[in-house]
Request: fold
Amino acid sequence: MAKYDPLRDHLAGLPRGQNSLTLSFARVEALLGEPLPPSARAYDDWWRGRARWRKVIESRPWETVGWVVDDLDLRLGLVTFRRQT
Reply:
C-alpha cells in the first residue's frame, strides 16, 4: 500500500452527495498512520502538486478518485478537498 492510499480510500468512501471535506493535518496524519512531511506543513505547492514536488504531483492519489485540493490553510493546518464533477 502506498503512503497516501489511506487518504485516497477515505475520500473515495465518502457518500456521492458529499462534495467537499475539510480535514486537519492531524486527521490526515491519523488516516495515514504517520506524520506528514515537513514540506506539507510549509508549502501550498506540496498539496497542489506544483513545481519542485514533482514526485507528489505524479502521485496525488486523491485526484485518482476525483478529489482536488480546493482550499488550504497552512497556518491553521487545514486542507479542504472538493469532489470534481
Notes: The first strand starts at residue 20 and ends at 24. Residues 71 and 80 are 5 Å apart (CA to CA). Strands lie at 20-24, 67-73, 78-83.
